[in-house]
Amino acid sequence: MLQSLDGSKVKTLSVNELNDLCEELRETIYETVMQCGGHLASNLGAVESTVALWYHFDFPKDKIVFDVGHQCYPYKLLSGRADRFSTLRQSGGISGFPKRKESEYDAYDTGHAGTSVSAALGIAKARDLKEEDFQVIAYIGDGSFNNGLVYEALNSIKILNTRILIVLNDNGMSISPTVGGMHDILSVLDKEKADGVKLLEQFGLRYIGVKDGNNLSEMLDAVSEAKEQLSSQSVLLHISTKKGKGYEFSEEHPTDTHGVPPVGSPKQQEYSHVLGETLCRLAEKDKRIAVVSAAMKESLGLERFFQQFPERAFDVGICEENACVLCSSMATQGIKPYYAIYSTFLQRAFDELIHDVCAMDLPVVFCIDRAGISGADGETHQGVFDLSYLSMIPNLTVLCPKDTEEFKKALEFSVEFEHPLAIRYPRAGRILFESKDDNGLSLRKWEYLHKADENSSVAVLATGERCLTVAMEVLKNVRAKGKDFHVINARFVKPLDLNFLTSLNCKHILTIEDNVQIGGFGSAVNTAVIHSKKSCTVRNFAYKDEFIVQGSVNELQKKYGVDSAEIQAYIEGFI
Amino acid sequence: MLQSLDGSKVKTLSVNELNDLCEELRETIYETVMQCGGHLASNLGAVESTVALWYHFDFPKDKIVFDVGHQCYPYKLLSGRADRFSTLRQSGGISGFPKRKESEYDAYDTGHAGTSVSAALGIAKARDLKEEDFQVIAYIGDGSFNNGLVYEALNSIKILNTRILIVLNDNGMSISPTVGGMHDILSVLDKEKADGVKLLEQFGLRYIGVKDGNNLSEMLDAVSEAKEQLSSQSVLLHISTKKGKGYEFSEEHPTDTHGVPPVGSPKQQEYSHVLGETLCRLAEKDKRIAVVSAAMKESLGLERFFQQFPERAFDVGICEENACVLCSSMATQGIKPYYAIYSTFLQRAFDELIHDVCAMDLPVVFCIDRAGISGADGETHQGVFDLSYLSMIPNLTVLCPKDTEEFKKALEFSVEFEHPLAIRYPRAGRILFESKDDNGLSLRKWEYLHKADENSSVAVLATGERCLTVAMEVLKNVRAKGKDFHVINARFVKPLDLNFLTSLNCKHILTIEDNVQIGGFGSAVNTAVIHSKKSCTVRNFAYKDEFIVQGSVNELQKKYGVDSAEIQAYIEGFI
Fold first, then answer.
1. Which chain A residue lies closest to B160 (C-alpha atoms)?
2. Roughly what angle, to the nearest 10 degrees, separates helices A148-155 and A116-129?
3. Over the stretch B352-396, which tens digit does the pLDDT of each residue have?
4. Is residue B320 annotated as part of the catalytic site, yes or no?
5. Which of A210, A449, A570, B105 could connect to A239 by a Cys-Cys bridge, CB 3.0–4.6 Å?
6. What value of ipTM does the predicted structure carry?
7. pLDDT at A188 over 70
8. Beta pairing, strands A492-494 & B38-39
């Protein structure tokens, strides 16, 4: 049915047919995610509510904004993308997130949490200004509902004097189980509606609750009521659903089946695993060590730490800013906080990083996972800005370990380091390079990973495992031809090892980084070279000034500016 | 009394003596602010509550975090700083904000809104971990209480399982009057306590309300009760106060007397005035234009716009992130939003700037006021990072007009510009430079502000009014000695005018910017020069990699790296 179904036909189906449609959606999602990887459990739970919305609303005339986007697969399947859905998250294929460029049905791009209510309000207000006539829906999970941005948006409903429908899909889970006071308030709503409703009325919302949001008939009735109410005021449609609905394993393991790799993906050593193990080891000896996470403890490798040191482990939900200020304030009292977070989500705590942690020069350690290109999640999830936005902040030291072994050393180094420290690393890692530094890391010190002849004219400064891997691959090819060059592990991006840089007696320097060029590692080397009046050329291999789409890490690295063939050709032009 | 008073003596005073103390505090604050400038109305309203806290708590053993810090003057006066208080906001003097380096009584530095509850929770949790015994207080105004970060913190009270006292000083004002749903909820609390209290209980808070927070006796009783409750749970002490209390003019004009310049300060033309007038003019012709502000419409020059176009002007309270997403979402529907904001506060919307506005390449215009060194407010308010954090974002154009006249042209240019645009400018401005471009601005095009002889070996690339003023001052001095150099108005910081740069036939290039060096304008020029293999030297005059303290703009510019004498000496070394 799905392949031939135009979403507008949903209205013509009987309840039985709609139930069949739900099953078909569920199967398609399951099968596709097993093939392509993607967000499974959240999408399975969103099937009936999405179908009910299609039944009563008119997309794309009416607009829907999916918060984060982890629940948009059923919607994508109903909006004319079923035939291409098997390309999910592949290069050139269907995005795992809403994308305006992909379809007129996608009203607003999302990827980070908490933007949907603001976005729906802005779209609705624009509608009012233009005197147009359509409905606007924010579809949000209870995990995102913890985010401060949602509160700011709720707070502005009356100011903006417009009408939206908020569908709060409450499955009790963020990626980890949802925590915090607001979720308790939502639970109270079920039991003691009167009080909760009064609260929501103050925000300008009419409350409608649905006990089983996976029951299609209930959902059809509730959406009908919500649509009617929406003619006069904003509505919160609060639905209880089951994350992973329909697949026993997923229902029982909603966290493990939140994001799923394709079947048959190789198991990799991950930096996150090293983070968890190392922090546990260090925390046994050092009672000052605490760990803070914003709803990502599993994917950051911190499960064991949370089990072993529950009193020193804090998951505050999808609240990146609050997590950052908790770290800085604990640090004022002599606690040593480790804030583990994905690179792209740390952007949310940028101001707190500057204004709280670094302005007070507090010894908080940022463990920045999924740095560099992260791959299949696309534009909103690439961690390619952090070297730039971190390097500009005074008092902050920025460290990119060359492999998982050096990551351990970096964490050991961090314990006694008395200033803000950022350690950034990709997901997959290996113990890759022979270590020259058995004594651990020293602040600012780079090392030769390969030292060529003293008269070698080319030095490659590469930072982090991925870029050193590229450099060493090129080195191997070049040496096979009897030529040679230096490869330097530029593990400290800030401060640069200026002594090392000055000591290099090369005519040609190359920098390689897993970050945009502007303001990043290469940019810092350019400035150092210009200021030192060294007479050498510098070429930066880094990402272009563009948002990087979805694809495989290797493919995207090449496409956007870190291409080993190009690096090799460039070097061979000199030697 | 104040000069000789140690805060710990407050406990020994009678209520009459305490009332006298309140009057003395008020007078001292008033007189000091008239001399030094500073935050008047908010501090006047906070006197009685602060005295009551001193009466019952033991500072600095107990810790207090002032949100933003606009209410910390009475506390500073009581904590051994009365004798130095006349140096308020002066170079080397008492800061207008809490500063740990200034006094052991200042537990946590603030300046941006909404951090206090998180910070108090972090300090309290650290106390618990260290098994210490003291109390922690967050003192926050109702304006800040709108901020999403506060919600994230409230949401984590139960997760953290610790106890703090939140004093919510509700004067009904942000800088502008407080707006939004949460403030309505607070009003309901007064009238219908039962419901509101239930809500707050879900967050883990016990509610205590005070009808007149400027009545010392009421405050003494309420703080006593709060302290008692605090032994078993977190407490929200909600007090109603009068902003500007005790000074009729200030009570009646709380917005005008929020931040006050020293008496006798010269009236300056301000960019904000030009912003307001120009946007009104443009909006008359173009119905797409809308304006968004986060509780700062007066200081951004937008009062007239809000009066003239109330349906297209949105003040969403201190919610920088929400304001940004409202802009991006309105832009998806063909509205042309102008988001006016201080440089330092835009840091709060950094992720939304990337993830919402720029990733979707939407035509939102950021009008970034108080860019560069802002002066007396110190570290937390300098706008010296924006050129760096803006330049690294794909799809974003960054423009620094050379004077207020060019700012008008920049705004005219912005109307038809179909991509994200950031225009940054300082507070004070003038129509300063003779315009060479009567046809308005063209994307990427720099101009000679002074073109020297073709064989001149030195070119100064300066961006924005302040830096061009420095360059022209140096030029005047140098020409008086019969020498000459080029001065270029590098108004587009991104994209750089590479054609112009390439066409320069100079041995020596200088860059001047009102921003940190790292990742900023000079950094971009360095990279361009390195990549072009131009054989010239480049020297960057920009701010050092440090947080910049309080002082006058001119003094700080010199001290941190933009010193006209140094620039002149450097140039005279070549010509």
1. A314
2. 30
3. 999 999 999 999 999 999 999 999 999 999 999 999 999 999 999
4. yes
5. A210
6. 0.96
7. no
8. unpaired
- Side chain identity, residue A533: K
Considering only CB atoms, A545 lies closest to which of B115, B199, B394, namely B394
The sheet carrying A63-66 orders its strands as A63-66, A136-141, A165-170, A234-240, A205-210
Q: What are phi and psi of B502, to 5 degrees?
A: -65, -35
HSE-CB for B121 with a 13 A CA cutoff? 30
Give the separation between CA B348 and CA B320, rounded to whole angstroms.
Answer: 6
| Strands of the sheet with B165-170, listed across from one edge | B63-66, B136-141, B165-170, B234-240, B205-210
Spot the catalytic one: A320, A321, A352, A465. A320
**Following DSSP, what letter does each residue of B41-105 receive, concatenated?**
HHHHHTHHHHHHHHHHS-TTTSEEEESTTTT-HHHHIIIIIGGGGGGTTSTTS--SS--TTT-TT
The token pair that represents A376 in the structure block: 């299949």
> For residue A428, which of A491, A371, A498, A484 has the smallest C-alpha distance?
A371
| Block residue for tokens 């009080």 | A195
| B150 in A contact zone (CB under 8 Å) | yes
CA distances to B112, B121, B342 from B116, in Å: 10, 8, 21
Interface of B with A in 59-98 (CB under 8 A): 65
What is the C-alpha separation between A342 and A185, in angstroms, rounded?
29
Measured distance between the N- and C-terminal CA atoms of chain A, rounded to whole angstroms:
62
How far apart CA A95 and CA A376 sit, in angstroms, is 8
Collapsing DSSP states into helix, strand and coil, what is residue B399? strand
* HSE (side-chain half, CA atoms, 13 Å) at B545: 14
As given in the structure block, the two tokens for residue A498 are: 């200026």
CA geometry: angle at B517 spanning B515 and B518, to 5°? 115
Please say if B243 is a catalytic residue.
yes
Residues of chain A numbered 389-448 and touching chain B (CB < 8 Å): 389, 391-395
Residue with tokens 């949100």: B67
Pick A185's closest partner by Cβ from B111, B202, B329: B202
Could you give the C-alpha distances from A172 to A65, A508, B123, B159, in angstroms and in order? 21, 56, 29, 15
User: In B351-433, at which residue ranges do the beta strands (DSSP E only) sit?
Assistant: 365-369, 397-399, 421-424
Does pLDDT of A371 surpass 80? yes
Nearest 5°: the CA angle B218, B220, B222 is: 65
Contact B488, B446 (CB under 8 A): yes
B238 phi and psi, to 5 degrees? -100, 110
Residue B7 Cα to chain centre, angstroms:
30
- Spatial separation of the C-alpha atoms in residues B212 and B47, rounded to whole Å: 12
* Whole-number CA gyration radius for chain A: 26
Instruction: Encode pLDDT of A226-276 as tens digits.
Output: 999 999 999 999 999 998 899 888 888 888 888 888 888 776 779 999 999
Tokens of A157: 């409903």
CB count within 10 Å of CB B533 equals 8
Tokens of residue A534, six digits: 């060294």
> Alpha helix (H) ranges present in A481-562?
498-503, 521-532, 553-560
